[in-house]
Amino acid sequence: FFFQAEDGIRDYKVTGVQTCALPIFAALRRHAIRSALKLALLMGVVCLALALGGEWLLSLLFPAEYRGHGQILLILGVAAWAGSLGAPASIALAAAERGSAVAFAVGATALINLALIAVLLPWAGLLGAAIATLGTELIGSLARWSAFLALVREESRTCAPEMVARPQAHAAADRKSTR
User: How far apart are CA 144 and CA 147, in angstroms?
Assistant: First the structure.
């Protein structure tokens, strides 16, 4: 069982001690949250543009039968916004070698989306399908963030108490001792 520490790859079987990876997870969490905020802002601008000019865009790009569907376009834009919020958590999980958690969340989200569309499409048409997609994108992002934050919490429980209290100081001391 190898894992990446701040100063290189270690094997706990060789040293008998498994170094705490909390500084790595703390940095990963910090970067994931910052990335999610940046994506939220960027996609928020796209959603605002769709809210203000979605109908015009539909009339410009598509034939007349697509006019009047600006609300659906906006809901799908908000669904893309919701889905993008889970991307940093997915990347962080993959970086932490937890790709199976990402695969499970994406697969479950797809199945929930299919089920909701099957229920809402006959009842509410394209608007129902768009709402189903928005709901499942929110669920999927929440699932990926929950998995990532649970991983960070679990890592903090397995570390020594002094490491949880001061991870940067411990990591600096660890780097000095291995030189």
Answer: 5
Encoded amino acid at 150, one letter? A
Task: Summarize pLDDT for 22-76 with one digit per residue, the tens.
Answer: 677 788 889 999 999 999 999 999 999 999 999 999 889 988 888 889 999 999 9
Nearest to 128, CA basis, from 80, 72, 73, 82: 72
CB 92 within 8 A of CB 32: yes
Cα–Cα distance between 171 and 15 in angstroms, integer?
17
SS3 5: strand
Greatest pairwise CA separation for the chain in angstroms: 71
Taking alpha carbons only, the member of 114, 111, 117, 107 closest to residue 144 is 107
